[in-house]
Amino acid sequence: MLEGKSVRLRAYRKEDVELAWKYINDPEVKSYLVPGIPFPMTLEEEYKWYENLSSSKDTYNFAIERIEDGQYIGGCGINEVNWKNSYAYVGIFLGKPYWSKGYGTEAMKLLLRFIFEEMNLNKVLLNVYSFNERAIRSYEKCGFVVEGRLREQIFRKGKYYDEIIMGILRREFLRTISD
């Protein structure tokens, strides 16, 4: 369990699954997460995902819990690890009621601390769509910088948008926590 001031990262519990399913099926939440057609996920698919959590070798998923009341508010995780080259790809989502309250930024900083201090990796990457300005600001607060841009990579609401690749190095993260 990793704990900050307002959130903690912990293992998923079976009782989180229905809320996760509810959050992830919100059309606005889903539009930020999947490149394909944001088709709703069934509750059975969400339970199957939960059941397979422990069998994934190089993925690590954390539930995000609000400290004040223990409320499950979203999830974050390491989606891919390249041990040879010392980098990982990460992702995060929050239920819409918990947006713009600083929870996501704090959760990402906890995840980065875990990756750099416990896994001893050198770099963390993520992909974000250019229309997700709130997330981009949050990632920048964590120290991420734009490393690349896939132009007009995703089609949403009748328009093409860029997919932005952002990254942070261990030394950059260590500088942000010492400031």
From TrEMBL:
PROSITE patterns: GNAT. It comes from the Bacteria. Residues 7-171 form the N-acetyltransferase domain. GO terms for molecular function: acyltransferase activity, transferring groups other than amino-acyl groups. Gene3D superfamilies: 3.40.630.30. It holds the Pfam family Acetyltransf_3. SUPFAM superfamilies: Acyl-CoA N-acyltransferases (Nat). PANTHER family: GNAT-FAMILY ACETYLTRANSFERASE, SPERMIDINE N(1)-ACETYLTRANSFERASE. This is GCN5-related N-acetyltransferase. It comes from Kosmotoga olearia (strain ATCC BAA-1733 / DSM 21960 / TBF 19.5.1).
